[in-house]
């Protein structure tokens, strides 16, 4: 029998904060949506159009807990996973409903601290202000200027090895 592959790789942004629930077994389950955008050239005019695709993502166990603790709306994520389709009967209509989603095998957080829409710390911050122990405020001052050594001549005697 021939080998088959079910692998999805995405690099995208969260559209809203993840929803995390727990199964009766106590295992965490995170559900969220990732947006990816493609640029396509419009055939009628020579202009470029952006086309956004939304992907349903599900993470289980420790990965779901990491999503709960660190992932926020606007974060950029790299995800590897597999496609699955679930089905259930709608309680109101009785019709069978299908949902295709990507179950996460690997998740990499690509956004730096403060790059998500809901984060309190701007991306340009350099560290916590020592005087604000647990207030949640951050030191937003510019770092101290560093000496410019461009004018200094370096010789072989200056190199320690």
Describe the fold and architecture.
- This protein has 161 residues and is mainly β.
- The chain has one helix and eight strands.
- It has two domains: 1-111, Nucleic acid-binding proteins (OB fold (Dihydrolipoamide Acetyltransferase, E2P), Beta Barrel); 113-143, no CATH class.
- The chain has one helix spanning 61-70, and strands spanning 8-14, 19-22, 28-41, 48-60, 76-89, 96-109, 127-128, 138-139.
- The strands form two sheets. Strands 1-3-4-6-5 form a five-stranded mixed β-barrel. The chain has a two-stranded antiparallel ribbon with strand order 7-8.
- The termini are far apart.
- The model is unreliable at 117-150 (pLDDT under 50).
Task: Please outline the major beta sheet.
Answer: 5 strands, mixed, barrel
Structural class: mainly beta
Examine the coordinates and then state which fold CATH places here, giving the name of the CATH topology of the largest domain. OB fold (Dihydrolipoamide Acetyltransferase, E2P)
Which percent band covers the strand fraction? 35-45%
What would the principal axes of the Cα set say about the shape?
extended
Q: What string gives the helices and strands in order?
A: EEEEHEEEE
What integer value in Å does the Rg equal? Answer: 24 Å
Distance, first to last CA: 60 Å
Unreliable spans are 117-150
State the CATH architecture of the largest domain: Beta Barrel
Overall mean pLDDT stands at 77
Number of helices: 1
**The CATH fourth-level homologous superfamily of the largest domain:** Nucleic acid-binding proteins
The strand count comes to 8
**What is the class of the largest domain in the CATH system?**
Mainly Beta
Q: How many structural domains does the protein architecture include?
A: 2
Q: Give the fraction of residues assigned to helices.
A: under 10%
* Neighbour order of strands in the largest sheet: 1-3-4-6-5
